């Protein structure tokens, strides 16, 4: 069940009348079903409810930031709600435009894993998600930052971005299904991963670490599922970092299995710790490094700084928490 907001970190709560117009950024490329059919179903349900709404359809990935800003401006003028319909990457892009404004933010999850939506009990099923949106309350939720750019679920460097990049290539060939992601991961791990030499600075302490990957998490459900104890520190102005010590291919397969069994926290080859601010330097004269933020890949200059946003996202969550979708 979602953790209640921490008053020490939250702004005054936003209240809803239930009549606010909805400005929906719909990513036609997310999900594995017919996008236009889903878009039509969302519009039909909103018309039946009598809720005023506008749908902005994103046909090309490069359009997403511009359309998100357009939706935010329209919502500010009309005292409305911005809604993102898509996978975790889509939610990230729209949330980045919403976060500085304090506007209410709703989601209609359509991606493969939907870690963010599932954490707050928001169903991937269109009818259920729209019903929750129409009868929602506000929960201010924590957002992570990488060099000032927000992430909702996680941010990473090293092997993990490569896994995501390969996964996307396999999905293009075989479709957006969870088993495709697993097969892709197994194939990726057959290649010997490069080891990053990292200098980590948190709470005034410096740590040197060689690892194939570093993942910084801001998602309670994800940490619970892989069995990391530091999950209790989330939502309290802290993030959780995970890193594997240098291992070979067979050991990486073992870590993947332990994560699937919810026992990654028991693995001796995994380092995990919570922090409020973390600076990461990549040794070896790397001026830039490939990173993944909520599944989206980009190149970022080093050093990297991870922190928690001082502003919380005013997320619409189901008023009825008895049917939380955590599966």
Automatic annotation (TrEMBL):
Domain DAGKc: 17-150
Keywords, in A-Z order: ATP-binding, Kinase, Nucleotide-binding, Transferase
The keyword Cell membrane belongs to this UniProt entry's keyword annotation: no
Keyword presence, ATP-binding: yes
Pfam family, one: YegS_C
SUPFAM superfamilies noted in UniProt: NAD kinase/diacylglycerol kinase-like
A molecular function GO annotation: kinase activity
PANTHER family per the UniProt record, alphabetical: SPHINGOSINE KINASE, SPHINGOSINE KINASE RELATED PROTEIN
UniProt-recorded name of the protein: Diacylglycerol kinase family enzyme
